[in-house]
Amino acid sequence: MISTEELLNNHGVKPTPQRVVIADFVLSTHEHPTAEDVLKGVAGQLPVTISRATVYNTLNTLVAAGVIREVFTEPGACRYDANVSKHHHFVDTRTGRIFDIPWDEVPQLPRSLKGRFKVHGYEITFFGEAT
Amino acid sequence: MISTEELLNNHGVKPTPQRVVIADFVLSTHEHPTAEDVLKGVAGQLPVTISRATVYNTLNTLVAAGVIREVFTEPGACRYDANVSKHHHFVDTRTGRIFDIPWDEVPQLPRSLKGRFKVHGYEITFFGEAT
DNA sequence: TTCCATAGTTAGACTAAGTCTAAGTTATGG
DNA sequence: CCATAACTTAGACTTAGTCTAACTATGGAA
Predict the structure, then answer these.
(1) pLDDT tens per residue across span B34-47
(2) In whole angstroms, what is the distance from residue A100 CA to residue A1 CA?
(3) Does A32 reach chain B within 8 Å, measured CB to CB?
(4) Distance CA A108, CA B126 (A)
(5) Which residues are registered as beta bridge partners of A92?
(6) Is B29 exposed, middle or buried (0-12, 13-18, 19+ CB in 10 A)?
(7) Which residue of A1, A35, A62, B86 is surrounded by the most CB atoms within 10 Å?
(8) Does at least one atom of strand C sit less than 7 Å from the CB of B9?
(9) Nearest Cα residue to A3 out of A32, A34, A28
(10) What pTM value is reported for the model?
């Protein structure tokens, strides 16, 4: 199990205490937290207060460095995903909860994408209700 | 070609002048406008000013009635799609523009979804650059 | 050590998307 | 006509997220 400090170093992100706490929080949950969830979740983890700006800056830095991912499934909030490997998402339309779905049956790219577009990646979002 | 009034009536939405203008605007573009785009776009279309609240209310009403769809691909803005038939989306990561991609090669549902989830629908978003 | 430069963090002001409210307007049925 | 319900309005409000200017660590170079 690699330490969070090492993980950040490996991605070229200087592991400050604030960044380690924030990364730890996102990496240790499957709840796909919003930035505000992270802000609440890391409160009290350090002797100093972690400011709102630092939370947002750090989340953006971690996304840019490929440590975590953004997920957009609903208006008004961006969620963060500790799972950066290829996978789909399932959104519970009642609760807004997001579940990771393994990447085991990959679709073909539609014919219409050939030529017109350069595809960097794609993502499938399923909507429904968890039982 | 069915009139917008009829279309709204068919979906159980009373076709007020404001609603017709707003629906016309969204239905006549492929640009996937945001609510603010709609607000700007319908300005001056009626003798009276269409208020922000009416634009947001009407867009939500049209989505609930199945006349148009919401698309979430970026933080900070919800976009509206006149195409309610099954299709994928391609997001230009430079410009944010969204293109509709035909539903011609449907993937299999992952095995892991069987049983655990009731799937109402799903959507594939491709990210990349239009050429 | 001390000095400096750079990167990071902070509180709080600010912006922008979207909702809410209370009052006014329009349509409809009796 | 009138009463009621549905709709629209301007503007206040809420909330996610960014920006700013001051402060704090860190890491050389002398």
Answers:
(1) 999 999 999 989 88
(2) 22
(3) no
(4) 12
(5) A128
(6) middle
(7) A62
(8) no
(9) A28
(10) 0.88
Residue type, B117: F
Check residues A91 and A106 and name the one with the higher pLDDT: A91
B72:A70 CB<8 A? no
Give pLDDT tens digits for B86-117: 888 888 877 778 888 887 655 566 666 677 78
Give yes or no for B95 touching A (CB within 8 A).
Answer: no
For domain A4-79, say whether CATH 1.10.10.10 is its number.
Answer: yes
Which residue has tokens 């492929």? Answer: B30
Q: Which CATH architecture has domain A85-128?
A: 2-Layer Sandwich (3.30)
Exposed (0-12), middle (13-18) or buried (19+): which is A10, by Cβ within 10 Å?
A: exposed
Distance from CA of B128 to the nearest CA of A (A): 4
Q: Nearest nucleotide (C1') to the CA of residue A76?
A: D16
Can you tell me the distance from the alpha carbon of B7 to that of B30, in angstroms, rounded to the nearest whole number?
Answer: 18
CB B26 within 8 A of CB B82: yes
**Contact status of B107 with chain A (Cβ, < 8 Å):** yes
Q: How far apart are CA A49 and CA A70, in angstroms?
A: 25
Residue ranges of the domains in chain B? Answer: 4-79, 85-128
